[in-house]
Amino acid sequence: MHNLPEAFARQMQDMLGADFPAFESALSSPPPVSINYNRAKLSAHAHSGEPVPWNPTGRYLSRRPSFTLDPLFHAGAYYVQEASSMFIAYLAAHIQSERPVDFALDLCAAPGGKTAILLNQLPESSIVVANEVIKTRYAKLRHNLAKWGRSNVIAAQADSKHFAPLKGQFDLVLTDAPCSGEGLFRKSPDAVQEWSEGNVQLCSARQGRILDNALPLVAPGGYLIYSTCTYNHYENDGRVRQALSAHDEFELAAVPVPQDWGLTATECGYQFFPHRVKGEGFYVALLRRKEANAGVRAPKVALSYFAPAPKQSRQAVAHWASLTDDDWAVLATPKQGLYLLPQRAMQMCSALAKALPRVDPGTPVGTLKGQQLVPAHELALSIHLSEDVPRCEASEEEALSFLRKAPFMPAAAKAKGWHLMTYQNQGLGWAKLLPNRLNNYFPNELRVRM
């Protein structure tokens, strides 16, 4: 790897003492490869490997395969994820042992790996809000959420300050704050080049603003997870200490961790070092709001853009998605777009839509053209797709041809009409089968170019 910045090297020498040579050596070794499998789509791991100790759905791989050429990756069967950051799963499990998590917020969510962890770890009855302020990163977040296949998630694009009307509404707030990226030096040479002491201070100030906006959103007795992929005091313990001083209704929450995991306890949380764990640099602290009295959920407000779909639209959706009238809401847009969302999420969706500039609820189902539904790509990846939808199982070669949008006719093709193209029973996208050809509806912007 590139030479370490002098100021950073001094910082780490002061922090690690005699351990610094081992740390420096670790940064020159190949980074571990790990995945988090989607427990709603797979009952076993897509790849065999050593378990990640703190995440039951995490696995280390012995080598890095070409994920782009694995149809299961495109089907959302797993997420390629750095192992240290999977510690969020352990914290989510600990929080659930202390209290129910009905509503969770991932405030800085893109590209979506930690939201996927929450959706994996929390019960399906939980509603998870995944927010990202940057437009280009928001598109990536939505794509990864679609691959994960859940409808109990609401995507939002907003600055953290816009969440102020939702004070006290979330049992869990995850704030994986933008940081100086010191923990990514082994994986990203660009992070080394971009590091400076001045950037550390800029990141710390930004994190302080985000935390000041995030902490009031926690419900009484609820939790906030604060994490970064960096090492320095200003962005980690120092930032948490300042937040606790400014918000005395919060306290540090103790989390028991097995010693053989190799985590380093700090004043406020835990630090992951690459020479002590099989992972990259990561920091996490858990804060709890002291008040134990019941919070007041957001009042229901009218939706300004989304509206309950008319009966005809619900009937059209019922042919494609497994739903019951009591459990599921179908929302419609003025452009005839339809979305599937758990009924229990409607109140939160209403409050978010009133407070935030953009909200995308649940799973896009498709668009009505006359009385016919043109299915959305997201529906092909959904775990709520009806078993009655025709399917066409593809071989690996056929699946890659489909993902590349290359001409082919699947050997399993029989009936005409809309079909879900599948690989190992996992949905990839939509195709319309005709007597002599296949019309491929896989999105052009997502097609494989290898």
Mean pLDDT: 94
DSSP strand count: 22
Q: Please report the first level of CATH classification, the CATH class of the largest domain.
A: Alpha Beta
User: Can you tell me the CATH superfamily of the largest domain?
Assistant: Vaccinia Virus protein VP39
Rounded to an integer in angstroms, the radius of gyration calculated over CA atoms is 23 Å
Whole-number tally of structural domains:
3
What is the strand content?
15-25%
The secondary-structure class comes to alpha+beta
Major sheet description: 10 strands, mixed
User: Helical residue percent?
Assistant: 25-40%
Described by the principal axes of the CA atoms, the overall outline is: globular
CATH architecture of the largest domain: 3-Layer(aba) Sandwich
Distance between the terminal alpha carbons, to the nearest Å? 27 Å
Count of helix runs:
13
Contiguous runs where pLDDT drops below 50 for at least 5 residues: none
Q: Return the CATH topology of the largest domain.
A: Rossmann fold
Structural commentary:
The protein has 450 residues and is of the alpha+beta class. It has three domains: 6-289, Vaccinia Virus protein VP39 (Rossmann fold), CATH 3.40.50; 298-389, Roll (Nuclear Transport Factor 2, Chain: A); 390-450, Nuclear Transport Factor 2, Chain: A (Roll). 27% of the residues lie in helices and 24% in strands. The chain contains 13 helices and 22 strands. Strands 4, 5, 6, 7, 8, 9, 10, 11, 12 and 16 form a ten-stranded mixed sheet that branches. Strands 13-14-15-17-18 form a five-stranded antiparallel sheet. The longest helix is centred in the middle third of the chain and has 18 residues, at 197-214. The mean pLDDT is 94.
